[in-house]
Specification:
Strand content: 15-25%
Radius of gyration: 21 Å
Number of domains: 2
Number of strands: 12
Largest sheet: 6 strands, parallel
Distance between the termini: 14 Å
Shape: elongated
CATH topology of the largest domain: Rossmann fold
CATH architecture of the largest domain: 3-Layer(aba) Sandwich
């Protein structure tokens, strides 16, 4: 008889698909020992499950301890939450899922396991160079676009000189010329990536950002885009192989210079595209990442 697993995530959580729906679907397709469902709150139906996985949220500590007294297994998936947010829970949880190796290092617990984001790319396509439409793409939340602010003028001059278009795929128009805004759509974002040439990302230069997963870089790379990262997280740095799949940069000057290097060297860009595509699929294919959930459930539910 299979054990019931409940993934619990707020309906407006951006990682709901990655960290709840798709793991649940994969478990139901590949395991006879566990059956998973997704909930958006700690409902009575959810709490009947033997294993409960909270995605960036937990019930009250008192309720969680009562669930454990009833023989329930309670697991927290941190995703990108600050480590301090759940400080009072850590010593009581059956397990904690970290989303990056550095986050796992900060949590420092024997019950901490790292399960990184898997790829959500479904087409498996690699970008095809298009001489008439050369593009640099950024994909993310509108509020994070500001991390490029110090480099925007230099990017505009560089792309104008070299005939590249700047494309922003996000939830709200950044209203920054000459960027072309493409509303984020789950049905079309991958098509946008595979018609671009370079993927870029930027983070705020603070310690918390070191814990961030390399999901964006992995999505770019899976579509065959070399990645130029400004202030990369530790996970970004472990994925982006300088000179082979992209570049990690740590100030505006480096960022612009590395962009220029890829833009003006077609052979380098094509070699990076092939290597990036292959490396991303090798490391972050769902069939590589998602078995870790079953391994964890077997470990804590035994």
């Amino acid at each position: 008889m299979s054990q019931e697993v409940s993934f619990v995530a707020h309906s407006n959580l951006s990682g709901l698909r990655f960290r709840a729906k798709q793991p649940a679907e994969w478990i139901n397709q590949h395991s006879n020992s566990f059956h998973a469902a997704v909930h958006t709150d700690f409902t009575d139906e959810c709490l009947e499950s033997r294993i409960i996985v909270g995605i960036k949220l937990l019930p009250s500590l008192e309720q969680m301890l009562e669930l454990q007294r009833q023989g329930k297994i309670v697991i927290l998936d941190m995703v990108d939450a600050p480590v301090e947010r759940f400080q009072e829970y850590y010593s009581h949880l059956n397990a904690v899922i970290a989303v990056s190796p550095y986050q796992k290092q900060l949590l420092q617990g024997a019950n901490v396991v790292c399960i990184e984001h898997h790829l959500e790319n479904t087409q498996g396509k690699r970008r095809q160079p298009q001489e008439q439409h050369r593009r640099i793409v950024w994909m993310g939340f509108h509020e994070n676009f500001r991390y490029f602010n110090k480099a925007l003028d230099a990017m505009q001059k560089l792309t104008s000189k070299n005939g590249y278009e700047l494309v922003a795929v996000c939830n709200q128009n950044p209203s920054t010329n000459p960027w072309r805004y493409v509303p984020y759509d789950i049905a079309t974002w991958e098509d946008v990536l595979v018609t671009a040439d370079i993927g870029i990302l930027a983070r705020k230069d603070i310690d918390y950002m070191r814990t961030k997963p390399c999901l964006k870089a992995a999505l770019y790379m899976a579509a065959g885009l070399p990645v130029v990262a400004l202030h990369p997280s530790d996970a970004d740095k472990s994925l982006i192989d300088d000179g082979k799949t992209g570049f990690n940069t740590f100030n505006k000057r480096q960022f612009i210079e590395r962009l220029r290097q890829i833009m003006t060297d077609a052979k380098l860009g094509e070699a990076m595209s092939r290597t990036a595509h292959d490396e991303a699929w090798k490391r972050y294919h769902p069939d590589v990442i998602l078995p870790a959930y079953i391994q964890l459930f077997n470990q804590v539910g035994a």
